[in-house]
Write a structure and sequence with these properties.
With 265 residues, this protein is α/β, with parallel strands linked by helices. It has 2 domains: 195 residues, Spore Coat Polysaccharide Biosynthesis Protein SpsA, Chain A; 58 residues. It contains 8 helices and 9 strands.
Length: 265
């Protein structure tokens, strides 16, 4: 059976939550904690429970930025199959086995994407009911990082550190760019309608209209996928028809700022 490594990315006090994420030791399953810290006090606060387990590695790295943290985890990964995790998830007993089984049963896939549920058992998104290849996913659907797993053999393939929480200008979009670039490289990506973890639901829906960093991210993601003119036209259409009562000109300005930010870097 393929080995599975869960890559937990956390920052500062988030390290205190990690022991509660771990499941009992299981053959073929290991945990790696990519631990960003900004002050020595957090490095000194690593829970002793983590050092006591042979199936857990803690790899500290000084700095900030979630995409950079994920890349640190990927560069140090050792499992055959890698699962990207945050520090606020609860994994479901036996369902990690579904992840490994997906790669055994579908030997041609490079990435498998799954579902998350909330603590009541409800899906956190309107997920498709059946499996899809990446290129046939419903329009407008996007994956969160914690729904993404991959074979380690796809590396080197990393998150664009201009995007994501803690990045200087673009507050989201790193998962969309990551999977798009994987697809462009010829990797096979498949979605499976099975939940693998529980989390508190949090979306960028209405926050999008209040946060310029998210608006800029949308323009930047569209640029990565469609080039300058394709992105500009899509942003214009979105601003005109989906502003939801907000100022379409201000929205368009921020999205276009995102386009020219990534275009110039």
């Amino acid at each position: 059976m393929l080995s599975l490594e869960i890559l937990i990315c956390t920052l500062n006090e988030g390290i205190l939550k990690v022991p509660s994420l771990l499941l009992p030791p299981e053959e073929g399953v290991s945990w790696m904690v990519s631990f960003q810290y900004t002050e020595q006090k957090w490095l000194d606060a690593v829970p002793h429970e983590l050092a006591e387990r042979d199936d857990v590695r803690v790899l500290p790295v000084k700095g900030e930025g979630l995409s950079a943290n994920r890349n640190h985890a990927l560069r140090n990964a050792q499992g055959d199959v890698l699962l990207i995790a945050d520090d606020d998830l609860k994994y479901l007993p036996k369902r990690l086995e579904w992840v490994r089984k997906a790669y055994v049963d579908h030997a041609s896939i490079d990435f498998a994407c799954f579902q998350l549920i909330d603590y009541s058992g409800a899906s956190i998104k309107d997920y498709p009911y059946r499996s899809h290849l990446y290129q046939s996913m419903p329009k407008g659907f996007w994956f969160s990082s914690c729904e993404i797993t991959m074979r380690r053999s796809v590396l080197p393939l990393y998150f664009d550190e201009r995007f994501g929480l803690g990045a200087p200008f673009l507050g989201a979009g790193e998962e969309e760019v990551f999977l798009w670039q994987a697809y462009q490289k010829g990797h096979k990506i498949k979605y499976f309608p099975f939940p693998i973890a529980m989390t508190n639901p949090h979306t960028t829906g209405e926050a999008f209209y209040e946060d310029p960093r998210l608006q800029r991210s949308k323009g930047a993601v569209l640029y990565m996928m469609h080039g300058t003119w394709g992105a500009m036209l899509r942003c214009l259409k979105f601003a005109l028809f989906h502003a939801n009562g907000h100022n379409p000109y201000a929205l368009l300005k921020q999205m276009w700022r995102g386009i020219f930010y990534v275009r110039g870097k």
